[in-house]
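I would like you to help me understand the sequence and structure tokens below and explain how sequence relates to structure.
___
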Amino acid sequence: MLKSVTESFARVIHGLTVEHLTDHVIQRSKRMILDTLGVGFLGTNTEVFHKASEYSKIYSSNVASTVWGQPDLRLPPTYAAFVNGVAIHSMDFDDTWHPATHPSGAVLPVLLALSEALPPSPKCSGLDLLLAFNVGIEVQGQLLRFSKEANDIPKRFHPPSVVGTLGSAAATSKFLGLSMTKCREALAIAVSHAGAPIANAATQTKPLHIGNAARHGMEAAFLAMLGLQGNRQILDMQTGFGAFYANYSPKVLPNLDSHAWLLDQQDVAFKRFPAHLATHWVADAAASVRKHLVTDRALLPIDRIARIVLRIPDVQYVNRPFPDSEHEARHSFQFVACATLLDGGITVPSFHKCQISRPQVRELLSKVELEHPQDNLPSFNTLYCEISVTLNDGATFTERSDTFYGHWRKPLSQEDLREKFRANASNVLSCDTVERLTEIVENLEDLEDCSVLTTLLKGPSSPEMVSKSI
């Protein structure tokens, strides 16, 4: 029995095989991959993606990988993973897990970039991709369970920048077939690449956390391959990985013969609109209250509303009374509540500058108050939102959301997940390519050669792009 936590992680990364994958894990991870590709394609339209890709063009190598939806741009694998990771998180539209993190964005871009960069023989299969993807997800989940602090919505470090970096290193190590010793070294190196403060939430810098996690994890595995060494007990120590979390209490992972995937036990949440997950409870409750205030297609009677009270957890970085940018609006309980009351729902365009600055929105924002009930803890597994709207005549309407559609307790149907992917990917790809990608991902375990998948990620050629824009 191993006594070292770090050694036990290296053993799991090195030792897991496709035979360990369960049908449940395969199905759930395929849904994660489809959703991540879709939000990544949509994210290539954002300003932060364009800035990251322009910066990355200064790097070149003999080996290059696809930047999703950009047929004329190829980058070294580490930087392709970086910019694709930025695209995935550029609108905060990617999946969310419990304990809190965005698990897929730091892993999938790495594996797709590597699958292009590796020699064509032997071929990388869909099962190879699924195994490495799930190893990267598993490592993140196990690390998050070593601290009580990680159970709550974060206050200090943005989780994907911490566990995502190690998930990327683990997935890369698995995909490259590294030895157990090299897997351990990759984790140690990755810890020194990890960590970004939550203060950069609601800014253009936050998407870099996912891109950097993807890139740095891959770099850690490459450095381990070259013989670079780190602390052999990096996951065992308070001064190692424990530096990122209070109450850090790591445990040796079970032997492979008794391995149980965390994804089998805990599904992810898929978002229906691009904003911080906690705001989805707010939108759900606000939509219910609106039914009391608006009949048929009538407008919301803003002048009759005296007060709006949101009873939510105390999450300071999502408390933004008057957001000025799309990134602040995506992290504002207040904005999501008011936009939902005004428009009946939240969509991708809801966060455009012209929508945020509408006089009707600003007037409603001035009427919002927050309350933090003691039983409403800042955990994606237990939080709720209650909203009360009081009119000038004293009438008050109250609704509560305990679980929204898309949460792991009320998961999106496969058809609704497909529709989200189609809506997002069709901003960049042709309808035929979107349908072909959907079919490939939904049958990924049967794919013999991942180059079939990566070829479709390039997007349309230049004439096709001109035609699509016309």
